[in-house]
Structure formats: structure tokens, C-alpha cells
Amino acid sequence: MSVLTVNTNNFENEILHSEKPVLLDFWAPWCGPCRMVSPVVDQIAEENPQFTVGKINVDEEPELAQAFGVMSIPTLVAMKDGKIVNQAVGVRPKGQILDLLKG
Q1: Does the annotation mark 56 as catalytic?
Q2: Of residues 89, 60, 86, the one with CA closest to residue 72
Q3: Which end of the chain has fewer CB atoms < 10 Å from its terminal CB, N or C?
Q4: Which CATH superfamily groups domain 4-102?
């Protein structure tokens, strides 16, 4: 499964109504730590088709970043049934990111 580029147009259908657990990566192209997390998030998406994995560029989608209260990036948010179940700020190893989805 590939990573979904999330925006205000597809957020409701692809994320809020996803039947799978969701991992969202809030990032920006100028953010060094975001570039460190990005390949890990891509790898999780490829290896775990049971999850919906999306990336939200905070510069292009400030409304979504604000709706999630994102103050620092990278911010990783895990959701189930349209509700936030876990979140973490900063670079995390793959195991910790997967734990967000299991929690």
C-alpha cells in the first residue's frame, strides 16, 4: 500500500471513514527531522496494508494541521474509527511508530 497525500478534499472519505487504523504524518519540506521520519513512514505503509498511511504537508494544509493542534513537526497521529488514539512529536524509530497504531 502506498502513502496517501492527504488534503482537505480527501480527508473525510480517506481518513475519517477509513475502516483501517490510520497513521498520519504531519510534515513540511523544509523540516530536517521530517525528512528523517518520511522513509520510515513510507516503509510502514509498504509493509502494512492493514493500515491507511497518509502524509499532510502543513504548509499546504494549515487547516488540517490546526484541526489536529499540530504545533511542532514531525507529528505522527494514530487514529481508529475517526478518533485520535495516539500521537507523538519528533523523530521516532519504526517500532515506536508501529506501537502508536497498536495502542
Answers
A1: no
A2: 89
A3: C
A4: Glutaredoxin (3.40.30.10)
